[in-house]
Every structure is written in C-alpha cells, then in structure tokens.
Amino acid sequence: MFLFLIQDKDNKSSVSDLLKSEVDKALQSENGHLDLYLRFLLGLSLESSQTILRDLMTQTGRSSDSKQEIVEYIKMKIRENLSPEKSINLFHCLNELNDHSLVQEVQSYVNRGDESSLSGVSLSPAQWSALVFVLLNSEEKLDEFNLRSYDRSDECLLRLLPVIKASRKADLFNCSIGSEGCVALTSALRSNPSHLTELNLNYNNPGDSGVKQLSDLLKDPQCKLQKLHLSLCSIGSEGCVALTSALRSNPSHLTELNLNGNNPGDSGVKQLSDLLKDPQCKLQKLL
Questions:
Q1: Which of 96, 123, 150 is a domain's end point?
Q2: Are residues 78 and 165 in the same domain?
Q3: Structural contact between residues 36 and 57, judged by C-beta atoms closer than 8 angstroms
Q4: Tens of pLDDT along 228-286?
Q5: Cα dist. 218→103, 124, 194, 245, 252 in Å?
Q6: What is the dihedral of CA 157, 161, 167, 168, to 10 degrees?
Q7: Domain presence at residue 61
Q8: What end-to-end distance do the CA atoms of the chain give, in Å?
Q9: Angle at 87 between CA 82 and CA 92, to 5 degrees
Q10: What start and end residues bound the annotated signal peptide (predicted)?
C-alpha cells in the first residue's frame, strides 16, 4: 500500500490522480467498505506521514500541492449533494488532510447554542453536510434532537436524518412534515432502529400513508420506540388499523401512544379498544 504514494518523477500529479481515483471508488461503493481504507490512504499521503515512512518510499514533487489538489477535489464531491452517509465519510477524509474550512463555516451557528441560531438560515448542500458532521461529532450526547432549531421542512428533515438516527428522542413537533418526509424518516430508522425511543410528530401531516410506514417500522422486532406522539396528524381509520395491527404483531415496546385530534372513525376506535384488551399489549397511556 505504501507504494501507492510513490510519485513518478515524470508525472508529479500521479499521486493526486491516484487519490482522486480512490475517492471515486469509495463513493461508488454501496456498503461503504472502502471508507476506512480511503481515510487511511489520505492520512498516509500527508507530508508528515511520508516523513515517518521516509525509508519505505521515494518522494518527489511538492506534497503540499498534491494535498491541496485532493482537498479541493473532495470538496467538489461534497458539493455534488451526495447522500448524507457518503458526505460524512468525505468530511472524515478532510479531517485526515487537516482541512476544516467547510466545518468552520457552520460551526459558528452551532456554537451560539440557542434554538433560533439556524432557523431560517439558507445553507448550501455542502454546509448541510458539514452541519451533520459537526452534530454527529459533537462532544454533547445526542439525547434529544429538535428539528425546530434548524428549519421546519421536509428538506431539513431529509438533510438531518443521520442525526435523528443517532438520537434517543426526536422532537419534530409542527415541522410541516408530510407523507414523503415520514416515508424517508421511517426508512432511515429501519436501517438503524435501535437508538430512538421517543418520536414526536404532533401537528404534522403524515396522513394514513405516512402512518402506514410508521406501522411497518413498529413491526420490526429491533424497533425500540416507547413513546409515539401523533396528535393532529390527519390520521383516519386506515392509519389506526395499521397501527393496531403493528402493535399486535410486536407488542412489547410501545408504552405511550398519542392520537388526539385525529379521525379514526368507528372501525379505528374499535381496533384500538380491542388492542387495549390484549394482555400482551404494553400500552400504559393512550390519548
């Protein structure tokens, strides 16, 4: 592997070309199995690492030029609006190269510490990715995530899904989340469902279609949701039937369910009433 970093005397850009190629390969990987390899390779490309490995390689050209070239290439890839997971890996790569410029662009907002610091702020895709990276690597434990601290929209929800997945409690109260946002949320939680124990979706508009997606999540035996708040969420009888069916198939975790302000109809009410009679049902609070 060390030989990858040896520059050709007749081609000073060979190292940069090689590293760019490895960045592209890592981005094409569906399961991320090249992520750590890429970070390690970029760390070895630094002049400080090459000094330590002086006896193992021949170095020509200016490594500082190669470093800056690959830094700019990685930033260009981040600006292409990649998936959050791929962007996070590229920020780890920038860390390996000791470049923190994109992170510093959003760090000042995060450091303010008040809930309105990022509300209404227009961020570029690269800045959104930087924000996710900062939040995930914060020294503060991600016990509770409040979407209103950033922006009340489906777009913001989609951008910050990795942070929600890493939190214990997600407060998405009155954040204009529709069925599309609910589908994306449940899909993300299904890929790593063990963290979140409380989800507040009160005063949103997932409707029956979004609630059916949530119901599929509740059926997952790995789902650990204990409290689910769905007050005033445009839920009808179909959504209520889907919820009760899910809780019958996996009744061991949910202890609190809030359905105030919805329209379950007679069939939905009957389904909920029958659920409460089930001795396996662990619901302690149904509103």
A1: 96
A2: no
A3: no
A4: 999 998 888 888 888 888 888 776 688 888 988 888 887 777 777 777 777 777 777 77
A5: 36, 34, 12, 10, 10
A6: 70
A7: yes
A8: 60
A9: 160
A10: none
Give DSSP secondary structure letters for 205-233.
--HHHHHHHHHHHHHSTT----EEE-TTS
Q: How many independent structural domains does the chain possess?
A: 2
Global pTM value: 0.74
Residue with tokens 């409690």: 169
SS3 content of the chain, % helix, strand, coil (to 5): 55, 5, 40
Instruction: State how far the Cα of 204 lies from the Cα of 187, in Å rounded to an integer.
Output: 18
Given the structure tokens 């105030």, which residue do they identify? 260
Q: How far apart are CA 231 and CA 222, in angstroms?
A: 25
Q: Check whether residue 62 and residue 155 sit in a common domain.
A: no
In the numeric block, the tokens 């850009």 are attached to: 13
Joined tokens for residue 29: 């990987």
259 plus 191 within the same structural domain: yes
Spatial CB neighbours of 236, under 8 Å, sequence gap ≥ 6: 207, 208, 262, 263, 264, 265, 268
Please state, as a whole number, how many other Cβ atoms lie within 10 Å of the Cβ of residue 1.
Answer: 8
Domain boundary among the residues 96, 122, 156 is at 96
In a domain, 130, yes or no: no
Query: What does the alpha-carbon distance between residue 240 and residue 220 come to, in Å, rounded to a whole number?
Result: 18
Give me the domain span that covers residue 10.
Answer: 2-96
Residues 6+ away with beta carbon under 8 Å from 155: none
Is 266 found in the same domain as 211?
yes
In a domain, 82, yes or no: yes
**Could you report the per-residue pLDDT of 177-210, keeping only the tens digit for each?**
888 888 888 888 887 656 788 999 999 988 888 8
Q: Please indicate, yes or no, if residue 126 is contained in any of the structural domains.
A: no
Token pair 């790995």 is found at 222
User: Distance between CA atoms of 10 and 259, rounded to whole angstroms?
Assistant: 70
